[in-house]
């Protein structure tokens, strides 16, 4: 049975990244498949790696929505995907 998380913004906002801490005590727990939708458009369809609590705190997995080289460089090791921002 899938789980859903909704983020609703009252006004338009720019999102440069989403970070995921996918802690799982066992390999059978945690998020495996992830879909991210924005304005009824599927913008990411992929997987997350499970990890220990200690590793998850130090290394979240990042989904990037920016071409800003400072952000891309900072999250290069943790990036699961980089997308060109919508409208560019």
Could you describe the 3D structure shown?
This protein is α+β, with helices and mostly antiparallel strands. The protein contains 2 helices and 5 strands; from the N terminus they run E-E-E-H-E-H-E. It has helices at residues 53-58, 69-74, and strands at 17-20, 33-38, 41-47, 61-64, 79-82. Strands 1-4-5 form a 3-stranded mixed β-sheet, with no helix packed on it. A two-stranded antiparallel ribbon has the order 2-3. Helix 2 links the parallel strand 4 (61-64) and strand 5 (79-82). The protein is globular and about 40 Å long. The chain starts with 16 loop residues before the first strand and ends in a 6-residue tail after the last strand. The model has no long low-confidence stretch (mean pLDDT 77).
Features:
88 residues, alpha+beta, 3-stranded mixed β-sheet, two-stranded antiparallel sheet, 2 helices, 5 strands, 14% helix, globular
Helix segment tally: 2
Coarse shape: globular
Overall pLDDT level: 77
Order of helices and strands: EEEHEHE
What portion of the residues fall into strands of 2 or more residues? 25-35%
Biggest sheet strand order reads 1-4-5
Strand elements, count: 5
Distance between the termini: 36 Å
The main β sheet shows up as:
3 strands, mixed
Percentage of residues assigned to helices:
10-25%
Quickly give the structural class: alpha+beta
Question: Which regions have little confidence, pLDDT < 50, spanning 5+ residues?
Answer: none
Radius of gyration: 14 Å
Give a brief outline of the structure.
This protein is of the alpha+beta class.
């Amino acid at each position: 049975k899938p789980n859903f998380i909704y983020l609703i913004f009252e006004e338009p906002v720019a999102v440069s990244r989403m970070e995921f801490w996918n802690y799982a005590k066992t390999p059978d727990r945690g998020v495996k498949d992830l879909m991210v939708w924005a304005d009824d458009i599927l913008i990411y369809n992929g997987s997350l790696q499970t990890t220990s609590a200690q590793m998850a705190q130090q290394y979240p997995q990042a989904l990037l929505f920016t071409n800003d080289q400072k952000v891309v460089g900072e999250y290069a090791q943790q990036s699961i995907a980089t997308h060109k921002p919508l409208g560019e």
